[in-house]
């Protein structure tokens, strides 16, 4: 173990990681250590004005310096930054939508009876999706309907003509705007390929035109691949309902076989949950000296199995190396996205087995057990058996005590039910409380962690300030895990942290002031919630009218850029922290931060300071409230019979 003082090495607000630092139980090399070795970083790369698209470069293009004003081919910094930005959208959209394609393939195999272990758990949602796809229901069998839905869903990714089906879920005014602006997306595969073509050397050099294509790709992700992934996962694995769970490294068990699932795709983890509960597996674990099998998760796979099974969360993105350093994990099972390449090296100092499972994502030094949806149970049994067999190799463990309860699993449908009940499921109570001012507005606070800020600290500070000012917060991904670690996802948090109006609503309904809505691919649930607010009435006729904002305070991945931009293109003010990849191109940055609001009703913004970020979000909510006239108190009028007759006549 390294003996540097904790303050020189680890910058985290996570109570469990702080405890590990106090005890000195941290790996020799962590992401924070490697980050320090990377400094000073290339300022051109940080500002988004380094171009390496062709081999005549790399070109450093800086409009403020005459000799660096243009690249070799003659493009300026705005074109370079625009190309780089839309390529980030393409990368993020590809990650989430390829996830969606994998889910669709598994769904179709399950519908055909070719994937044992999977089933249709939410028939009602299957019927709804069939209607969205114009698929006949009638008296047809569930299997036949599911096959048609799976076939249609898989085909959406490659649609050559738009618009994609889920655009119909957006408000009519938003649909008309996308059509008018030429932003209606085709299949996400087509849009990503076109981005790569347009950003090839010598093709599209107009930042406005490039961003129009970036918007199409982002929308094809948010209202296409990601939304389909969420819908099909709900149908196969069950639409989430509120679940009591627990969060942080303290969920690891000293006397049980600990298996941690890390990544973003739930198809395998769903089966591992079932296999780990098999009595034969538990008996084998006991024969090896353990008292049982303890399953937990990291990142969005954790969010998926929490929402549907109450499986505890061990941590988020920057927790992954520290989890191994507890010495208590027999197997860390990886699928795709947000996985450190360092994990096999860190694990070599302990007994943990690192297991990769996806053909897209292999890591040198890891054990590869490839997942096949057609024989998922066999794959899961191999993994669980390997973990059990590794238990006798465990040495000293250093599990911190820190963990916190949370309530997770607030799907769009669940919120609808909680607000209105079984027979009156509706967003009307939420709309009414926004109108009367008890709830100031709604914020989606989502995204990653980054070593460039205090781990979890910015998420927590922003969210606390928002709920203090009566803004209800919807969360996904690592941001949700950050706030769960400190108790913000418990109903009791409303009384302690929320403003008087929001606390009153939360107490009445019985919900936390911060709602866990799932994994990062489930940001489509927030889009659906926004569309439902418009549909309910009283808050304008488009998403851009709503007192709704978005934020990614600690973003780091291309997925966050794609998510952020499909919210911006859907009409939502979206602010990020840490850094922004276009600051070397002031004109292009102005396009995103100012001019784009004239195009879509949404815009990007940036702020490092969490208090200032929260204030900007609240100010934007107030601007929307004022535009709707919600800032003006309305006198309560008691209607007499004559006034009622007059209303009836109208």
Descriptive overview:
It is a single chain. With 650 residues, the chain is of the alpha/beta class. It folds into three domains: 77-237, Up-down Bundle (Substrate Binding Domain Of Dnak, Chain:A, Domain 2); 249-393, Rossmann fold (3-Layer(aba) Sandwich); 410-627, Rossmann fold. Helices cover 48% and strands 10% of the residues. The chain has 27 helices and 16 strands. The strands form four sheets. It has a six-stranded parallel sheet. Helix 25 links the parallel strand 15 (573-576) and strand 16 (604-606). Helix 10 crosses helix 23 and helix 11 (266-276) crosses helix 13. Mean pLDDT is 94; it is low at 1-7.
Largest sheet: 6 strands, parallel
Which structural class best describes the helix and strand composition?
alpha/beta
Total helical elements? 27
Total count of domains: 3
Biggest sheet strand order reads 6-5-4-7-8-9
- DSSP helix fraction: 40-55%
Number of strands: 16
Poorly predicted segments: 1-7
**β-strand amount:** 5-15%
Instruction: Give me the CATH architecture of the largest domain, please.
Output: 3-Layer(aba) Sandwich
Instruction: Give the overall shape, derived from the CA principal axes.
Output: globular
Specify Rg, calculated over alpha carbons.
25 Å
Termini distance? Answer: 78 Å
User: If you consult CATH, what is the topology of the largest domain?
Assistant: Rossmann fold
Q: For this structure, what is the CATH class of the largest domain?
A: Alpha Beta
> For the residues shown, what is the average pLDDT?
94
